[in-house]
Amino acid sequence: MSIKDRLIQYVFRGKNELSPEARRIAEDLDKVRSAGKELTEELDKAKGAQGLAVGLRSASEAAERARSTLERTEKGAAELREELNQNPGSKGLAISLRTAEREAAKAARELDRLTAETKRAEEAAQAAGIDTARLAEEEKRLAAEVDRAKAAVTENTTQLRDLERQQRAAARASAEHKSRVDAARSAMASGAKQVLGYAAAYVSLNAAFRLVQRGLNLVRDGIRSMLDTGSEFELMQQRVTGLMGSIEE
Asked: Contact, 53 vs 130, CB < 8 A?
């Protein structure tokens, strides 16, 4: 198997190992975020209902205080009126009566306002599903719902942060894998260049060896030719010598 094929298998194996985990984390994050949104809405709803119940109780208590104030001021005005009837010329009683009547009128207006406010709060609470006839029990129930919703939101936030840490870890792993792949590619490219360099050097050296070999072959052939020529010359000399000897005889 070539280096390139091994590198391709390495890249895809790493990608296949990282991708499912990254996809799972992304899917879980979407689910947890969606659940967190719903839980937050439920918490807001529970807090809103709790606020309506508390508002109704506060308005009712304020109306009761206004009613008590009105009753007290009206009773005081009635007593002063009775005393003034008994002492019609008393200017002090007349002034006190006018003050008491103003206080009573003010208390009556405040009671009217708070009564209307209490009625609106009661209607809103009933629309939210609160049993206004059992307001104290409903407040306890709603407080428990708020606590449960808060705990659920807190748990969801913890899950979300844990998944975000996992996602960051997966991202780091992916980046490290990419770095290793890039390093492998760089090494492969460098190795290929070295192989090509070695191949070029081998071809050049081989050509030089062939050239030297050809030179040696030429020298060898020249030597052989010289040796052959010398042999023929020696043989001719022997023949001439023999011929001259026969003439002398």
From this structure: yes
Q: What gap in Å lies between CA 30 and CA 19, rounded to an integer? A: 16
Q: For residue 126, give the 3-state DSSP assignment.
A: helix
Cβ(36)–Cβ(153) below 8 Å: yes
Q: What's the pLDDT score for residue 175? A: 72
What type of residue sits at position 43? L
Q: What angle do CA 181, 185, 191 make, to 5 degrees?
A: 140
Q: Identity (one letter) of the amino acid at 67? A: R
**Tokens at 107, concatenated:** 């208390």
pLDDT, position 216 = 53
- Count other C-beta atoms under 10 Å from residue 144's C-beta: 12
pTM for the full model?
0.55
| Radius of gyration of the CA atoms of the chain, in A | 57
How far apart CA 35 and CA 162 sit, in angstroms, is 15
